[in-house]
Design goal:
Blueprint: H1 2-6, E1 30-39, E2 65-68, E3 79-82, E4 86-93, E5 99-103, E6 108-113, E7 116-122, E8 124-127, E9 132-138, E10 143-149, E11 166-172
Parallel strand pairs: 1-4, 3-11
Antiparallel strand pairs: 1-2, 4-9, 5-8, 5-10, 6-7, 6-9, 10-11
Protein name: Multicopper oxidase domain-containing protein
InterPro entries: Cu-oxidase_C, Cupredoxin
Domain Plastocyanin-like: 58-156
């Protein structure tokens, strides 16, 4: 299994309670999953990204590429929202390092950690290796807002910037 995960063959699914058990559960308007991963991919020189097809090392001891849902910026999919929508983002870290994640333009509530309910507020979270953190917020600040890992090297592809663990929250009026 670890060989499959090291090659990116991983995903997530969400199991909601049966409808009659959802009485006190508020379902968000949009529910996003951001799977955080890192890769050690052989490149001849730091600061350059060479085109081609590369096989990641099985263990990411010296990671140089960082992804959200298997894509590095600028190829990450944006998260779309509109005024007043309740948004849930589920961060899942399947890498051997922690990743601190920040959403610009919005504060949020941490509603669950590893499936256990929480209620605390923040604008940056540290998603440890193997951890799952769910956050919620109401979209109320128009614009295009970065969602990114805060570690500078994690915002690159092999040291080339911009890249890595960055996506966007796009607020449509």
């Amino acid at each position: 299994m670890e060989m499959q995960v090291a090659q990116g063959l991983i995903g997530a699914f969400v199991v909601l309670p049966e409808e009659n058990n959802r009485m006190n559960m508020e379902i968000p308007y949009r529910d996003y999953i951001l799977l955080l991963q890192q890769w050690e991919i052989q490149q001849p020189k730091l600061g350059k990204v060479y085109p081609g097809v590369y096989k990641p090392e099985m263990f990411d001891r010296n990671p140089n590429f960082f992804t959200i849902n298997g894509k590095a910026f600028p190829d990450t999919a944006p998260l779309n929202t509109a005024c007043g929508e309740k948004i849930r983002i589920r961060f899942i870290n399947k890498s051997s390092s922690s990743h601190s994640m920040h959403i610009h333009g919005h504060d949020f509530a941490i509603v669950a950690v590893d499936g256990f309910p929480r209620k605390e507020f923040d604008d940056t979270i540290n998603v440890a290796s193997g951890r799952r953190i769910e956050i919620e917020f109401t979209s109320n600040n128009s614009g295009i807002w970065p969602i990114n890992g805060t570690k500078t090297f994690h915002q690159t592809n092999n040291g080339e910037s911009p890249g890595g663990m960055i996506t966007r929250l796009i607020y449509n009026k």
